[in-house]
Amino acid sequence: MSKSFFRKVAYGLNIDTETPSSPLDWAISQIQNIAPIVWDSEIPTGKSLLKKNADFIYENRKVLRVQYKNDAHGYREARRKLGFKLGKEYHEILEYAIRHNTALKNKAPVFERFLSFWANHFAITDKNELPNYGTGAMHREIIRPALTGSFEDLLYNTTTSWAMIHNLDNSKSVGPDSRKAQRRMERGKTVTINENHARELLELHSISPNAEYTQSDVIQLTYLMTGWRHPHTADRLECNPVIFDWHFHQPGSFKILGKIYDDRGG
Question: For a FRET experiment, which of 61, 143, 223, 253 has its CA 20 to 30 Å from that of 7?
Fold first, then answer.
């Protein structure tokens, strides 16, 4: 079999790996179990990185922006130093190093190529320090452990992860008939849903436009997904673990692609 096979389904062969006699069996065997990450030093957890993200965002928004309100140059320099203190650029580079080292050195290059495919499928933007403190942890702790299971579990776990909830603004989506909406309207505030997450879930992460879903399906899925959010607190701002909050959830049943989903919460 052509050597291009090993580059197409994997990242080539490890320097210590002999050419398999049955390349297809060799490839299939690698996606039966979770391949280990190859890294000799401590790997930061998603929880610890979320705390660093909280520290950076709080210090930047609540302290530096006030302190350097009329000094743009001073603010940029102070923000840069804060980034060094909390390893902002370091953690993004560290994730690249861990990923590349693992792809080169473990015995399952097909699995690593598989991981790269799904990491790209569930792409995360570079907003609000996500590449520094969120994306790598999502790949390691959410996507990687799910690759030998069902697509449904992979989709659910990724959809409700902190990185994806934040990336697609689901915390900003409030059901118009929810308890939270009622309280806001009593105070004269507007209440809106945010379609970003539902639209991306249908268009890119699951069924694609080939399923011929409609704008009504997007709205109904948006209603169904209200309540999945990261709470906003004074000390950590939006950098809190994801929960399902009934107070933000749109009550009722939802018709999506012709099927009725009863309101049973998360």
Answer: 143
pLDDT for residue 1: 56
Q: Give, in order, the Cα–Cα distances in Å from 245 to each of 119, 136, 220, 259, 266.
A: 27, 26, 18, 24, 9
Q: Both 52 and 113 in a single domain?
A: yes
Give the separation between CA 152 and CA 113, rounded to whole angstroms: 20
CB-based contact 194:218 (threshold 8 Å): no
CA 49, 59, 172 angle in degrees (round to 5)?
Answer: 70
Single-letter amino acid code for the residue at 7:
R
Give a yes or no: residue 72 inside a domain.
yes
Calpha distance 57→53 (Å, rounded): 6
Tell me the whole-structure pTM to 2 decimals.
Answer: 0.90
Neighbouring-strand partners of residue 185: none
Give the percent of the chain with pLDDT over 70: 98
Is residue 132 within 8 A of residue 88, CB to CB? The reply is yes
Residues 46 and 82 in one domain: yes
Q: Got the DSSP string for 22-41?
A: SHHHHHHHTTSSPPPP--SS
Yes or no: say if 202 and 242 are a contact pair by the CB < 8 Å rule.
Answer: no
Same domain for 139 and 195, yes or no, is no
Burial of 8 (0-12, 13-18, 19+ CB in 10 A): exposed
4 CB contacts (<8 Å, ≥6 apart)?
A: none
For 123-160, b where at least 16 C-beta lie within 10 A, e where not — what string?
A: ebeeebbbbbbbbbbbbbbbbbebbeeeeeebbebbbb
In terms of residues, how long is the chain? 266
Find where tokens 């409700």 sit.
160
